[in-house]
Design a protein that fits this description.
By secondary structure, the chain is of the alpha+beta class.
């Protein structure tokens, strides 16, 4: 998780996420639509939809855009029918990856995902080969301008499971359904929350020390995330700050 998280932070600093805001909104619209179709349009009784709405608002998606996506899920507005597909694979160095996609064409998406892996030295894996080591968690990153004890005092009172030193920030882990409530509590205590996400966390990590492997892994990550059908990519690599900054140049 730490390596994946640090890579996301570097890309954010380089402006890549802001430049791709439209793509992010398009992906969130699909997630909202599918969550509504599968669990109904009431966030109070549909926990998945409620979480995605909070995630969309955190990314500054407008209420109108959120409402339109929900209406498509309810069948009140026309739109393509998407289905959820998960792919599992390995990147160079034995790094495990889990890829969540929403697609209206399984053959197209499978071919695109397979190509993203293979052209950088990775490969798709059989179902179950990778997924067993991942579980969904909430992760809140807090700017390290406050002590660990102060973070723990508030975090543990609001459902946090763990607080870990993550370099230039504190990483707080919680149940995925309470991540945004925890974020609100931490901000209410005056802490600067860098990010708050519901994500998949691996029970084990793979240390990557070779620059060539690191470049190939991050290339696969970027190629997958650039695909419109791919919603999220999770990986269990751990790359040092120095190597991440080196390969990000």
């Amino acid at each position: 998780m730490s390596g994946h998280s640090k890579w996301a932070t570097i890309k954010r600093k380089k402006g890549a996420i802001d430049a791709a805001r439209g793509k992010i909104f398009a992906k969130m619209s699909r997630q909202l639509e599918v969550a509504t179709r599968e669990g109904g349009g009431d966030p109070a009784s549909n926990a998945t939809l409620r979480t995605i709405i909070q995630k969309a608002k955190a990314a500054h998606m407008t209420n109108d855009a959120i409402d339109r996506a929900i209406k498509r899920g309810l069948g009140e507005q026309t739109g393509a029918a998407f289905e959820t597909v998960t792919y599992e694979g390995y990147a160079p160095g034995g790094v495990a990856m889990l890829v969540d996609a929403l697609t209206n064409n399984r053959n197209r998406t499978a071919a695109d995902v397979r190509m993203a892996f293979s052209k950088s030295g990775g490969a798709l894996a059989e179902p179950g080969a990778v997924a067993w080591q991942f579980s969904r968690k909430g992760i809140v990153q807090i700017e390290k301008n406050i002590s660990e004890d102060e973070v723990m005092l508030v975090a543990l009172d609001h459902g946090a499971e763990d607080v870990v030193d993550d370099g230039d920030s504190w990483r707080v882990t919680c149940d995925s359904t309470t991540v945004f409530e925890l974020k609100t509590a931490l901000e209410g205590a005056g802490m600067n929350v860098v990010s708050a996400v519901s994500t998949m966390v691996s029970s084990m990590s793979v240390a990557v020390t070779a620059a060539d492997d690191a470049k190939a892994i991050l290339k696969i990550m970027d190629d997958l995330e650039d695909n419109d059908d791919v919603q999220d990519v999770y990986a269990n690599f751990d790359i040092s700050d120095e190597l991440l900054n080196e390969v990000a140049q």
